[in-house]
Amino acid sequence: MHSMVNDDGTARAERHGTATSKSDGTAAGKSDGTPAGKVKGRPRGRPRSFDRETALEKALLAFWEHGYEATSVSDLTRVMDIGAPSLYAAFGDKQSLFEEVVQVYGTRYGSFTDRALAEEPTARDAVERTLREAATAYTEPGHPHGCLVVHAAANCSTPEVEQSLRDRRNANIAAFESRIRADAAAGVLPPGADAAALARYTGAMIQGMSQQARDGASREELERVAEIAMSIWPRTGTHTG
C-alpha cells in the first residue's frame, strides 16, 4: 500500500469534520466559534500530496539511467514531479535519497545473486544461475539496462557514495568466495581451486555484462558470454554426493 505525502513532506491526513447544515438550512458554525462563512485569519491552501513510493521509483530510474553524479536535484524534482523542499522533507538530501534508492533497487531488481547463492546446491550452480539471470535482468525492457550499482558509480566524485557502491560490489564477491571455499573444503571443487580468483572472475563477468548491456548487447548475446565464462570453471573434484 503506497503512502501519500503532502508536498511539504508530511504524511497526508484525511480531512474530517466538514461543515454541516442546521435544520433551517443555514450552515453550522465552526467548532472554534467562528461563524459560518467567516474566515479566521489568513486562509491556507491544502498542501499538494504525492505518492512517496511512486516518486521513489521515478528517482530510482533517473539514477539508474544517468548515474549518481550526473543526476542533479533539479533533474530529480522534475522526474518526481515534486518541489525541492518536498524532496528534502520527504527523503533528506540527494545522497540520502540515493541510499534509499539503492536499497529498493537491491530488493526489487538486484536480488537474483542472493537468491542463487541461497538456493543452488553448489557454487558453480549459483554462479551459472547468477550470470544467466543477469543476462535477463540487465536487458529487460521497461527500465534502464545494466546494473544500477555498477553504472551509478561511473564518474562519481562523492567519496561516500563511491565507497558505498564499492562495498556492495565487494560484498557480492566475498559471498561468492565464501561459497567457493566451502565447496573446495567439501571436495566439490579440486583442492587447488583458487577461490579468491574465481570469485573475482565472477564479479568481473557480472560487471562486464552490465556494461555490455548498457552498450546494447542482447539477452541472447549475454547468455552466450555466460556459457563461455562457465566453461573455464574447475570440474568436480573427489566429491561423489
Description:
This protein has 241 residues and is mainly alpha-helical. It has 2 domains: 50-108, Homeodomain-like (Arc Repressor Mutant, subunit A); 110-230, Tetracycline Repressor, domain 2 (Orthogonal Bundle). The chain is 55% helix and 2% strand. The chain has a two-stranded antiparallel ribbon. Helix 1 crosses helix 2 (73-80), helix 6 (123-137) runs parallel beside helix 9 and helix 6 (123-137) packs antiparallel against helix 10 (219-230). Residues 13-35 and 41-47 have low confidence and may be disordered.
Order the strands across the largest sheet as they lie in space: 1-2
CATH topology of the largest domain: Tetracycline Repressor, domain 2
Number of helical regions: 10
CATH architecture of the largest domain: Orthogonal Bundle
List the helices and strands and how they pair.
Blueprint: E1 4-6, E2 49-51, H1 52-66, H2 73-80, H3 84-91, H4 94-108, H5 112-119, H6 123-137, H7 148-151, H8 159-185, H9 195-214, H10 219-230
Antiparallel strand pairs: 1-2
Helix pairs in contact: 1-2, 1-4, 5-6, 6-9, 6-10, 8-9, 9-10
Features:
single chain; 241 residues; mainly alpha; Arc Repressor Mutant, subunit A; Tetracycline Repressor, domain 2; 2 domains; two-stranded antiparallel sheet; 10 helices; 55% helix
Q: Care to give the gist of this entry?
A:
The chain is mostly helical and 241 residues long. Helices cover 55% and strands 2% of the residues. It has helices at residues 52-66, 73-80, 84-91, 94-108, 112-119, 123-137, 148-151, 159-185, 195-214, 219-230; strands spanning 4-6, 49-51.
